[in-house]
User: Fold this.
Amino acid sequence: MKPLLAAIGILAVLIGAIVLETSATGYIVYLVNLLLVMLVLSLGLHIVVGESGQFSLAHSAFYGIGIYATAIATTAGWPFILALAVGGLAAAACGLVIGLLALRMRDIYLALSTFAFGEAMQWVFLNWESVTGGPNGFNIPPIRLFGIAIMSDRMAFPVVAVLAALFLAATLVLHRSGFGRALRAVRESEIAAAAVGVNVRLMKLAAFILSALLAGAAGGMFTAFSTFIHPDSLGFSNTIQVLTVVVVGGIGSVWGVVGGAVAFGLLNELLRQLPSYQEMVYGAILMGFMMFAPRGVFAALRRSR
Amino acid sequence: MRKRVKLLGCLAGTAMLGITGAALAAEPGLTDTTIKIGLFGPLSGASQAYGQDVLNAAKMYYAKINAEGGINGRKIEVVVEDDRCSPNDMVAAVKKLVEQDEVFILNGGSCSAPVVAAKDYVVRSGVPWVMLNASGDGALYPPQPNIFGALSISQRAVGGSTVEFAAKFLHAKKIGYINHDDAYGAWNLEAAGPQAREDGASLIVESVDPKITDVTAPVLKMRAANVDVLVLTTYAGPAQLILKKAQELHFDKPIVVAVNAIANLKQMVDNVGSKDAFKNVYIEELLMAKPGSEKLGWVYDLYKKSYPDLSSQPGHPQVYMPYGIPPAEVVVKALQAAGRDVTRAKFIDAVEHLDFNSVMAGPIVFTHTDHAAQKASIYFKYDGENLTEVPGVFASRWTYKGN
Amino acid sequence: MDLEIVWLFVQQGVASGLVSGAVYALLALAIVIVYRTTDVANFAQGEIYMAASYLAFFLIVVFAVPVWLAIPLTVLIVCCGAALFQRVVLTRVSSGRGVSVNLVIATLGLSFLLKGMVRFSGFGDAPRSFPSLVPDGAVMIGDASLTYLDLVILATSLLVMALFFWMFTYTKAGRAMRAVGMNRRAAALVGISLSRVQMQVWAFSGGISAVAALLIAPKLLLTVEMGHVATLAFAAAIVGGFTSLPGAVIGGFIIGVAENLVGLFISSRAIVVTPFVVIMLVLILKPQGLLGGAVRVRKV
Assistant:
């Protein structure tokens, strides 16, 4: 039963992708590109918060590093694959540093220091003008893939979609692997995990690095179809949006994150039409989910079945 | 399996036909009887006061033209999007207007930072874009073939004009200059420096965060530096805090407040708290006369007629409302000049030949290499209650010296 | 920079810093008492403070409620609102199954809700102010200038803190709060009603924030973003040691003075990033701050 379901699911997604690429308006393709970036960002946050239980609020910083690093590499003429790798690795390196510091902190202290780091990083983006363009923002040149310059949302979509699919598959594999189980063991109880031979420090560090890597890669994906980045989009409110996706989807569930990202994308577009309600709705969603469905909407649905 | 491939092939084929069919149609946004214009601005959010009524003014001007018979046999059809003055929302609004609504011309933008975000996409799409009241420096320098702006004033010109006023009218030799450390601030500073040097004055600069709440440091430093005049190009909140702090710290030199800070004069006085703080304050004005004066009477009358409910609400019309007239005039005049068989290319060419007087302090002038229209301001002395006009128009001399 | 100007900057920086520091101290106090007794880092503290000022503005300017009535009314409403939030939302969240960070996420939700409500009311479009009760005028302390309002802010803040410490130390309710803060289970065992104490603590936290807001509002302007001073309050609490009440107060004054001195001697641009750097440095180098005890490890 399950393999057939999976095959139909994959085919449906493929057909949807082809229809999107060929006949939807460029605007819709743009929205889907954004959604896929949010998906990869959320997968990254899922690894560090959902799998390993470390409440990190620095996610936008890694995303920003990925965007700037990839954009700078592209400006220097590097092909996209290389530039994307630069973005991901730069973010991962930063994740390593923060992860090392995070090993000494717990819970609220971790949350506060990663929050402070995220804000400080935004200030760096804003003031390091020679590298990031500072308050003028950074004009992102078109990426080059196999010699072709990607000049529109429609051209970028296949690239973005393939990358998103790859990262999703990788996260799923991680989730089901021994590594994933070890991470979740650390989340539940560090002492018990250590007792069964898990190298707790290494696991926590690895989670941070992977999470930053994904965030940086998401930044690279963003540069495939965007022409401009400004530090204003790289602050705490961006982190909160990603957190909302993970929370709504269900902390600890990969498919929950996917569902959360899709729901978030739809909600976002809907709320664009009702701007005065945007923040109130976000707040109500966060509170409501914490009160009534703390394990996310998809866990709640599964429970009720 | 074969059936599925066939089905997919059919779908793909039909899609292809659809696309090529669309491409062979006439200029988007144009029919025999209508021209579709995409208006966008901050209709909500923190910057609503900078653009909501500006957009309304443009809309009412188009309605007036339609009532007078339209342009060369076509009526103007308006599609409106809210950009909330945020880069992501403006990009989404512009993409929607171009791809979904297929407008002929884009007419929007009240805030400069998101304008830069949307710039590359609009340049690639080739759709003509006449900004509303955004300063728009980031998309005007270097000039782009299809983007026009600074219908209110560019930030470069704000820097140049305020310094010119301080140096020429207030005879300042040492000018204190408080701006923000954002893009806006960088732009106005870029012109302020050279203009001061040319006028034989030195510029003492303090750049502060737009969210600053404690302005003791910058004001104290200005007082300690013994400046002759203090120029503020900050937003309203920080400007008000600075006026208050200047009074507390007994800073009694003249203070020139740029247009960036002046959305609501009465609110400004309330927030500063006392008329004493306005003993030596000058404000910059971009319109040709005081807002609400009889020279601009027709604009306010038209607003009242077009929006009877809105104009009875407090705070309306918003102070910047008349700034929506020049952009609409630009669009209409260029369409008229381009003639009945107008195309986007002809429209752009027509805009580049415009040179007329609108409701602003200086003329609206475009050339092939300069797409920033308005560069001058007038100034008033403001004592907290009355505005006294200072004679003269003070223009910025900065020009773009790129390649 | 010659010595005279340096000395002027130091005096003014310290004087103005103590005044803004008093407000940070109040907010830091509010944050710490909530953390001590309910284990929640209240990320909505700034928004509660912001909403309190807008509520007062609403009452005084829109409804023309006389000031002597509006102020206690505002404090009362905020106290009740905060207690209600604890009772309705947080108890539900902490009883549900989920990760321990859910409480913090719930407070984040509250912060968005409050911000959205204020924006929705339409008053958030431009900076607002309401009239100061204190007459204009300033005194010179050495070379530094402080307005009468500044002095009132400082004096009232100190008074509120003193009252709070007295309540905390000598009254039954205060002792109950301390007991819950020290060891929740033991406190429950001796018959202290946890839910009542937690509601009271949230009410006090809200009330202190409201007082801070009412004090500072005539000096600053009301904007929807004014809640970001909570970051400075968090920095203050961390500097003082996140679990120490006197530490929070001292931390507040330190942050206030540091902020001003950084602005005067380094650069106005650096003012914004100072609290973040302080938070990171303290947490990395000396997480227990100045007066905090050993960092508690809660999870097993």
